[in-house]
Specification:
Shape: globular
Low-confidence stretches: none
Number of helices: 16
Structural class: alpha+beta
Strand order of the largest sheet: 17-18-16-15-21-22-23
Helix content: 25-40%
Radius of gyration: 21 Å
Number of strands: 23
Largest sheet: 7 strands, mixed
Strand content: 15-25%
């Protein structure tokens, strides 16, 4: 078998990549899907459209590689996490559009649960604060608001899944015996998995009103689960990893203290804490990094809701740029942000604040400000939010960052990466293969079927592509960051 196939189902698009043994890309196909905004704060995807895109990109990637399923040793799936689907197990039809991780319609449920014990009421059990981000409240909303849903769930007619589960079910047969599975990294994002047992927690199911019968079986991230049918008939499905944990594997952050930051729709930084389950006291999430064998490896995560999607907002909502790639040139046309700060709290603030009442602000505007300053402020917002997370990680773990491994779509932006190095005061390192999320899913699948022998083989595949060294003085760095922190305070207590 010559290749490993990785399916990367993301927030804005679905991608399939064919990798060889060296971790090099030999074929790729990518298709976008619709972003549905029924009301302010509501974000949905059409599950049927996602399934169509999955089938299209698999065929496209194999064609681009000049390969057939007979050339593929295994398939790994990585996915946008927390996005929630409920579907009929006999027909495969979703009962409602998927509720995307950015969706805030569960704010009332979250407030209700937090009224008795506060935002951290369940943190000791599930490692997460109460927030609209996670899947459990989304399941509750669907069961309470879609006609007949709760009765169907209690009859055993419905299935729940994050996107990994939904896609795996269809790829392995769907209504005709499809596997209803997830892995520890995705299960941990539901607010329903007990961190100590890595199984569904009866107390959490009761608190959120979720019937256990609709939940998938929790597996390792790397395991030969079964075989695909249809276009990949006979290919083993052998990897399931949430996208940010997959990037951690793809960046070979296998040692405690190693960290990576993914710059995508949002930003997600993970710090490997090894076999040590660290409960955060500074606004981070405790999450499995991965489970490649019998042992779960843990991480602290800083999740930022809006980074790359802020560039999309400037393009699609404001018409400030015609294409996302134009933002770097526009931002570089001015020497600095002109005093403008843009805090994109469109869905509230995630780590380390966890404030659902926050909303986006642009501050520091004068007649001097131009669209170039706004573009620069948008890029800088990503770097400032990352510094907030880095500082929280240092406080929780006692480990000071010495370099930051980066990946994701925004790392092609040299202006952003240089500013990131400047505002952190440490080197920023982009690997030669920047598609680390898909690569991590490929590694998980390949390890399960013996395509790669061990983690040392994977480490040997990693090499640095470009490094940005900090060039900004400490006084300037701290002054800019202090202004950012003032801007963040202006976002709070806005939404009722």
């Amino acid at each position: 078998m010559k290749y490993i196939l990785a399916l990367d189902q993301g927030t804005t698009s679905t991608r399939c990549i064919v990798f060889d043994h060296a971790g090099a890309i030999v074929g790729v196909d990518q298709r976008e899907h619709q972003q549905i905004f029924p009301r302010p704060g509501w974000v949905e995807h059409d599950p049927a459209e996602i399934w169509r895109r999955v089938q299209e990109v698999i065929a496209g990637a194999l064609e681009a590689a000049g390969a057939s399923p007979a050339d593929v040793a295994a398939l790994g799936i990585t996915n946008q996490r927390e996005t929630t689907v409920l579907w009929d197990k006999r027909s495969g039809a979703a009962i409602h559009n998927a509720l995307v991780w950015q969706d805030t319609r569960t704010a009332g449920i979250v407030r209700e649960l937090a009224a008795d014990g506060g935002q951290d009421r369940f943190r000791g059990t599930v490692g997460l604060p109460l927030a609209t981000y996670f899947s459990g409240p989304k399941i509750r909303w669907l069961l309470d608001n879609v006609a007949g849903a709760r009765a169907a769930a209690e009859r055993g007619d419905l299935l729940f899944g994050t996107i990994d589960t939904f896609v795996a079910w269809w790829l392995t047969g769907g209504p005709d015996g499809g596997l209803h599975i997830t892995d520890v990294s995705n299960a941990s994002r539901t607010m329903l998995m007990n961190l100590e047992t890595c199984d569904w927690d009866e107390g959490m199911l009761a608190a959120l009103g979720v019937p256990r019968a609709i939940l998938p079986r929790i597996c390792r991230s790397s395991e030969r689960y079964g075989e695909c049918r249809g276009p990949l008939a006979g290919v083993p499905l052998a990897g399931l990893v949430g996208d940010q944990q997959a990037a951690t594997v793809g960046q070979v952050c296998f040692a405690p203290g190693e960290a990576k930051n993914t710059y995508g729709t949002g930003n997600f930084m993970l710090l490997n804490t090894g076999s040590r389950l660290v409960q955060s006291t500074h606004g981070l999430l405790t999450t499995p990094a991965y489970q490649l064998d019998s042992a779960v490896i843990w991480a602290l995560e800083g999740s930022i809701a809006v980074t790359g999607s802020l560039v999309q907002w400037l393009r699609d909502n404001l018409g400030l740029i015609g294409a996302a790639a134009e933002i770097e040139g526009l931002a570089a046309s001015v020497a600095d942000n002109g005093g403008v700060y843009l805090v994109p709290a469109f869905s509230g603030l995630f780590a380390p604040h966890w404030r659902a009442d926050a909303r986006g602000v642009m501050v520091g505007l004068t007649r001097y400000a131009t669209k170039a300053h706004i573009a620069r402020a948008a890029l800088e917002a990503t770097a400032f939010q990352t510094r907030e997370v880095v500082e929280a990680m240092a406080q929780d773990s006692g480990v000071e960052l010495t370099a930051l491994k980066v990946d994701g779509g925004m790392v092609a932006n040299d202006l952003l990466m240089q500013f990131q190095a400047d505002i952190l005061g440490v080197p920023v390192v982009r690997p030669l293969v920047a598609e680390t999320t898909a690569l991590g899913a490929a590694y998980a699948a390949g390890l399960a079927v013996g395509y790669w022998a061990n983690q040392d083989e994977l480490r040997a595949n990693w090499s640095a592509g470009k490094t940005w060294e900090p060039q900004m003085g400490a006084d300037q760095r701290d002054s800019l960051y202090a202004q950012w922190c003032k801007a963040v305070q202006r976002t709070l207590d806005w939404a009722e």
